[in-house]
Specification:
This protein has nine helices and 14 strands. It is globular, with a radius of gyration of 22 Å.
Length: 425
């Protein structure tokens, strides 16, 4: 965290309605270089002794001095604790409960995340906790073992965030779901660009097993999708620019509610994206299930639990196991050795990134995330990476690591990356 003194914790998050280049992601208020690798908040588990109590770290890009949206932090920690939405923060292990409005910010360097002791318990204290009288709640070790909270969404994740259905969108065959999504969205839902588009899945296709085992087809629009293509539903997809799709699949950012609207929220440092898009409202999305945005959030933040599993300390975990022939979630005390083995699973696969497009007739990509210029009749079928709206520099393409530069027809990024970043920074 920055050594500059922090403003009061009651500062609200600022939501931007347009993509702008914000200096807050490049320089501190006193003009010094802004080291956004250091802008993180540590969340600790009160049921374990220091230094083995670090639950996860989250980037704190909501304020130039380091701040994190209060409700977003609560939901992230609640997901890690197995979908507990009545948790709370303290500044010290035995400190007073912090109470903020949903859209205010946490400004400290670290907090303890507590959840109430289970109801019906004789005592409000966990006598088995070596750290003292603090509940040692179980933790989800990876996304594959995270149970989706059906009919129990966290506060702020209401259906009212989504736009109602509009006419004019035809649901096509599953093999053409990308066309359906682009016809619905018409442009990238983050940048509003209309060139270089792709169909992005909220629950990644690589998580098909998790999708089916959690009965996520309940939130699909189509009921006749095959088992292999059940993630290819328009309510699990949105249109993104190709470079933003790649960043999305590298867990650089998520889309979460703040201030009653959906905004982009960056989880990792980037050269340019954060300054342009962090806390920016997304363009209207129709016929997309809010449950899939929550799924994406969990998929993106659960790899951070790796730091909790790696120290080799015995942990109480939530595990998905076979119990009398049925798959059930159970609380399981797990040895330090087994926790270390699970730490590799915590990272999980990346989302299936956009692949090199193929013209119609040359076979289907494995994930069907074509560049959509090829799919719409009458659109330019050449290799076109120039982006039209004036909100960003035309001809700029961001690579997987967030650096930006103009791209030629042969795909060579050239030498313009640093010059472009200097212009926007």
């Amino acid at each position: 965290m920055s050594t500059v003194s922090s403003p009061p914790a009651a500062v609200p998050v600022t939501i931007r309605t347009e993509q702008t280049i914000s200096l807050q992601f490049d320089q501190d208020v006193d003009g010094t270089h802004y080291d956004h690798d250091r802008l993180k908040i540590s969340f600790r588990h009160p049921g374990y002794k220091s230094p083995y109590d670090l639950l996860l770290k989250l980037s704190a890009f909501d304020h130039p001095l380091g701040g994190l949206h209060y409700r977003t932090a609560l939901v992230a920690c609640g997901i890690v604790a197995g979908n507990v939405w009545d948790g709370y923060f303290t500044e010290t292990r035995d400190g007073s409960r912090i109470t903020l409005d949903d859209d205010q910010m946490l400004m400290g360097a670290e907090y303890y995340f507590h959840i109430p002791y289970p109801s019906g318990s004789v005592s409000a204290m966990d006598e088995n906790s070596p750290a003292g009288s603090y509940y040692r709640y179980p933790v989800v070790p990876n996304f594959q073992e995270w149970p989706f909270p059906h009919h129990n969404l966290p506060p702020g994740w209401a259906d009212g965030l989504m736009k109602p259905s509009v006419g004019g969108t035809v649901t096509r065959a599953p093999s053409h779901h990308a066309i359906t999504v682009l016809e619905r969205d018409r442009s990238c839902r983050i940048s509003d660009y209309t060139d270089g588009l792709s169909c992005a899945h909220l629950c990644p296709q690589a998580e098909l097993g998790w999708f089916t085992s959690n009965a996520m087809y309940e939130y699909n629009a189509q009921t006749q999708l095959s088992a292999a293509s059940v993630t290819d539903d328009k309510q699990n997809c949105l249109t993104l620019r190709l470079d933003l799709h790649s960043a999305f699949d590298h867990r650089k950012f998520v889309i979460v509610p703040k201030g009653g609207v959906l905004v982009t929220h960056f989880l990792q440092p980037t050269s340019c994206y954060g300054r342009i898009y962090h806390n920016t409202t997304i363009h209207p999305i129709y016929n997309v299930s809010i449950e899939f945005f929550l799924t994406r959030f969990a998929w993106a933040i659960l790899p951070s639990i790796r730091t909790f599993l790696e120290p080799g300390v015995e942990r109480l975990l939530i595990r998905l196991e076979d119990v009398k022939g049925e798959r059930e979630y159970v609380r399981r005390s797990t040895t330090g050795v087994d926790c270390r083995k699970l730490s590799g699973l915590a990272v999980g696969p990346r989302g299936v990134s956009p692949k090199k497009r193929k013209p119609p007739g040359e076979g289907k990509e494995e994930n069907d995330d074509y560049e959509l210029d090829y799919l719409l009749p009458g659109r330019n079928r050449g290799r076109n990476f120039s982006y039209s709206p004036g909100s960003s520099a035309s001809g700029a393409v961001t690579d997987l690591e967030g650096s930006v530069g103009s791209r030629s027809d042969d795909g060579d990024a050239g030498n313009d990356r640093e010059r472009f970043c200097a212009q926007v920074g």
